[in-house]
Specification:
The structure is a single chain. This protein is of the alpha/beta class and 258 residues long. The chain has one domain (2-87, 158-254): P-loop containing nucleotide triphosphate hydrolases (Rossmann fold). It contains nine helices and twelve strands. It has helices at residues 42-50, 71-77, 93-98, 113-125, 141-154, 171-188, 199-205, 223-226, 229-236; strands at 2-13, 16-27, 31-35, 56-61, 64-65, 78-81, 159-163, 191-195, 208-213, 216-221, 240-244, 250-254. The strands form three sheets. The protein has a six-stranded mixed β-sheet with strand order 6-7-8-3-9-10, sandwiched between helices. Strands 2-1-4-5 form a four-stranded antiparallel β-sheet, covered by helices on one side. Helix 4 (113-125) packs across helix 5. The chain starts with a strand and ends with a strand. The model has no long low-confidence stretch (mean pLDDT 93). Keywords: ATP-binding, Nucleotide-binding, Translocase, Transport. This is ABC-type cobalamin/Fe3+-siderophore transport system, ATPase component.
Amino acid sequence: MTALRLDGVGVAYGGKAAVRDISLALERGGWLAVVGPNGAGKSTLLKAVAGLVPHDGSITVYGTPTDTLTRRQRATLVGYAAQSPVLPDKLTVTDYVLLGRTPHLGPLARETAADLDIVREALDRLDLGGLAGRNLDTLSGGERQRAVLARVLAQRARLLLLDEPTSGLDIGHAQALLERLDGLRREDGITVVTTLHDLTFAAQYADTLVLMDHGEVVVAGSGHEVLTAARLRTHYAAEVEVLTTTAGHPVVAPIRSR
C-alpha cells in the first residue's frame, strides 16, 4: 500500500519557489531519506507534508488527500518532529511525551489511563522510563532527541516525518537513535521520512534516497545509485570518495584538497 504520494508539490515563500514540482511515492513501512545541500528545500518539503506551509499540487497519505483532512485528523496520521524543536524546559519528560496524545483527545477532554499507558510504552521503548519524572532541561542532547521521538511515537501516527533527527548528536548517539527508529519501523510497520545531512547514515538506514537541490529532485534511488562522487561534487561542491563497507553500504569520505 502506498503510504505517501506527492504529485506536483510546490512551496513558495514571498513569491520565491522553495520547492518545485515534487512527485514521489513511498510504500507502507518504507524509509525515505531526503538529502541535499543547505537550502535545497528538504525541511520545507517535510513541512508541506505535515501541513505546516501552504503548497501547490496534491499530497496523499495512506490513500487520503490531506486537503480533505482537518488538522486533528491529519495529526492522527502524520507525526512531525522539527529539526530544532522548542522544548519547554520545566516540563517533565512524561508531560512532554503526553503532548503526543493531544490529537486523540476530544475538546476539553483530559488524558485517560489508556493515554498514560501509551506514553509509558513509548518511554520504555526508547529507554526513557528512568527519566520520566525529570525536567527536559536536565537531559543530555541525546536524551532530549529521544524524548522528541517518544512524543511522536505516542501520537501513534502511521507516517513519521523527522527533520534531522540526529542533529547535534555524536556518532554513537546518532547511530543508537537511528537503530531504535529502524527497530520501531520494523516492529510497528510505520513509514518514515527523514532529512539527514549525514549521507553515510542516510544510505545505511533508508530504503530510498532522494537528492534535492534548488527545490527540485535531482535523483531518487538506492544509496549506491544516488551517492556518486561526480554528483556530490556537482550538488555539494565537495570532493569525496564513495567507498563500500563489508556489509555493502556506501560510505562518503571527504578528500582533503591539496
